[in-house]
Write a structure and sequence with these properties.
165 residues; alpha+beta; Double Stranded RNA Binding Domain; 2 domains; three-stranded antiparallel beta sheet; 5 strands
Length: 165
């Protein structure tokens, strides 16, 4: 008999000041944070069944973030993508709370100054919004550019961090 390793994937929904967030848990780690109308969101059928258990830490830390009481997330993450995407997503986690970097800054931090477009594309595919702070990346002139959750939400998140910082 063949043994098949089936990962446990579940999801829940939490309220936030920027609208409902869908949290995805894969094998006990946070694998997704998606907003309504989220660009590049996977098919919701891949989120598994709804189960509110297993999301306590993530939901609490997101609530603390929105209250201005949390500047860094400590939940376990399951980041899946290409090696380059994962490298970009890990670099995003080093952008200090309340600050912004340009796509060029991010590419240079990775030692890939000519990969600005590739960095921007990987940033746009970040599956764990807010927790992996892709909203902290702006255009080289400081302008708000692309955000999977929409520019209004990006502005709200940046404003929240400025006030709390």
């Amino acid at each position: 008999m063949l043994s098949v390793n089936v990962e446990s994937v579940t999801h829940t929904q939490v309220d936030s000041p920027i609208g409902p967030l869908t949290l995805v848990n894969r094998a006990g780690a946070l694998a997704g944070v998606y907003m309504s109308e989220h660009k590049h969101s996977p098919d919701p059928s891949t989120f598994g069944p709804r189960a509110d258990d297993g999301f306590g830490d993530a939901a609490r830390q997101l609530a603390e973030y929105f209250d201005g009481a949390r500047t860094e997330f400590t939940v376990s993450l399951d980041l899946r993508g290409t090696p380059f995407q994962r490298q970009v997503w890990e670099a995003l986690r080093t952008i200090p709370y309340g600050q912004t970097w340009s796509y060029r800054d991010l590419a240079e931090a990775l030692g890939r100054p000519n990969a600005v477009r590739a960095v921007a594309a990987a940033n746009g595919k970040n599956p764990i919004s807010i927790v992996v702070p892709c909203h902290r990346v702006v255009g080289s002139d400081g302008s708000l550019t692309g955000y999977a959750g929409g520019l209004g939400r990006k502005r709200t998140l940046l404003d929240l961090e400025k006030r709390a910082a």
